[in-house]
Write a structure and sequence with these properties.
The chain is mainly α and 193 residues long. The chain is built from nine helices and no strands.
Length: 193
Amino acid sequence: MALPSSIPAAPAREAGQSSATPRAPATPVVATPVVAPTETVPGTAVAHAVSNASKKRAEREALLDQTLAAFDSGVQAAVRSWLKVPYDSLRLRNFEMQVDDEPGLRATERDTLKALVRLFGKKERKRPRDRILRDPRTERVAMELRKKMAFLGYDWKRMQVQTQAQTASVCPPPEFEHIAPMAAFRPGRTSMG
């Protein structure tokens, strides 16, 4: 009887599986980058060309290379092809199913690959529903105008509620406006008669 794929494999069963890759750690571990600092001479064109974005990209690639080093070249190529295209929930689920169906991988290796794609993959940007905001030429101007015009025409006024203590008289509800205020409750009157 085969175990369902949702139940993790026992360590004895996992040890018996043959894999082309070395045994991965029990939890998905992503290596920390070890990037040698580049030496540039201040004031040269090379020093000005190196930007923060390229440094981050180089660190990211070095970290990815170091993490994928434990896997064979076929798995590395597959992961890199998945990382090239931004993913949405459907693509991510398809990748996870493809990793789960791969026969030569251990459970820990599967978990590591799934974590890699979630960590290094780029999420697909949702497009704006508004046609004006979809156009890159009008997007910035339209957003600025909408921010400026968002609350025009709204005035905030606190309602002036008058209580009986402030007016010292009892007024009938709007349905009974035809009835005059009761004489017994007029200020200055001492008796009801």
